[in-house]
Amino acid sequence: MFLILLTFSLAFSADPVDVNDILDNFTEEQLKIIFDEKLDKDVCDDDYLTLLARYQSYICPKKLDNLTVWDGSDLNDDAYIYKYQLNDKKFDWFDIDKQKDIILQQIDKNSVHTQRVVNSNRSMIFRYTYRYSGEVRDVVITNWELRNL
């Protein structure tokens, strides 16, 4: 498990995580569930999504580009929520429909995460908070849209 975490950290993260710190906060079984690429029917969707949101929030914040920081993820009864912070002087350039089209092209409908969100009848929300004013804009991908990708 240590090698999987280290590889993931180095390959997919601009800010590598402290693997020992993760191992102190997540059991090997929890990490196996999070990184499993197959849908394990023995793990309920809510447990998986709760655990994944906790893990993603633990490894955040992550700078994604010059304007965007991923702050973590949340789960509620209606949606799996990705939280982002935009660090720009203006927020008027943000086009929700254009951003939604970009996101829809990037969602892997076959991923365990997407399958579990669909199975749990939740939507995905990509929540962008403007750092300077606190204004929030949500890009919502409904459960119906996820089912029909």
For the secondary structure, the number of strands is 5
What is the fold-level CATH name, i.e. the topology of the domain at 61-147?
GMP Synthetase, Chain A, domain 3
The portion of residues forming beta strands comes to: 15-25%
Question: What is the CATH class of the domain at 61-147?
Answer: Alpha Beta
Structural class call reads alpha+beta
Largest sheet: 5 strands, mixed
Strand order across the biggest sheet? 1-2-3-4-5
Q: State Rg.
A: 16 Å
What would you say the CATH architecture of the domain at 61-147 is? 2-Layer Sandwich
Mean pLDDT reading: 87
Question: Count of helical segments?
Answer: 7
How far do the termini sit from each other?
A: 32 Å
Q: State the low-pLDDT regions, or none.
A: 1-13
Global geometry: globular
Structural topology:
Layout: H1 2-12, H2 19-25, H3 28-35, H4 45-59, E1 62-63, E2 68-75, E3 79-86, H5 96-106, H6 112-119, E4 123-130, E5 136-141, H7 143-147
Parallel strand pairs: 3-4
Antiparallel strand pairs: 1-2, 2-3, 4-5
Helix pairs in contact: 4-6
